[in-house]
């Protein structure tokens, strides 16, 4: 169940990050409310996941997967450029996430 909670926390983290950008400094009420839901949901679900997972595994996966998702959706929604350097960096993040997940049972 911890991995499901962690996955939900990642989704909320991505919503938070994208919402923070789209809210224009919390000047757009609807988007600002979505952003707040994103941050609260993310913290709630990561806290549930960390009941079982080590914080040294769960937190980096949460932030890493959230960062990769934010880059991808930022490109799709906001037309941000995905440069070769960004691709290299998020491949490194994904490698770290996979590595941490494989160590979760150790």
From TrEMBL:
The keyword ATP-binding does not apply. The chain crosses the membrane at residues 6-26, 33-53, 59-78, 85-104. One of its GO terms (cellular component) is plasma membrane. It comes from Streptomyces platensis. It comes from the Bacteria. This is QacE family quaternary ammonium compound efflux SMR transporter. Keywords: Cell membrane, Membrane, Transmembrane, Transmembrane helix, Transport. InterPro entries: EmrE-like, Small_drug/metabolite_transptr, Small_multidrug_res. PANTHER family: GUANIDINIUM EXPORTER (PTHR30561:SF0), SMR FAMILY PROTON-DEPENDENT DRUG EFFLUX TRANSPORTER SUGE (PTHR30561).
């Amino acid at each position: 169940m911890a991995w499901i909670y962690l996955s939900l926390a990642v989704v909320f983290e991505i919503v938070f990050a994208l919402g923070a950008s789209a809210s224009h400094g919390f000047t757009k009420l609807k988007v600002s409310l979505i952003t707040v839901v994103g941050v609260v949901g993310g913290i709630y679900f990561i806290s549930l996941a960390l009941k079982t997972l080590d914080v040294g595994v769960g937190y980096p996966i949460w932030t890493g997967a959230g960062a990769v998702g934010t880059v991808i959706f930022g490109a799709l929604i906001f037309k941000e450029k995905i440069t070769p350097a960004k691709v290299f960096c998020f491949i490194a993040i994904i490698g770290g996430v996979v590595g941490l997940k494989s160590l979760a049972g150790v």
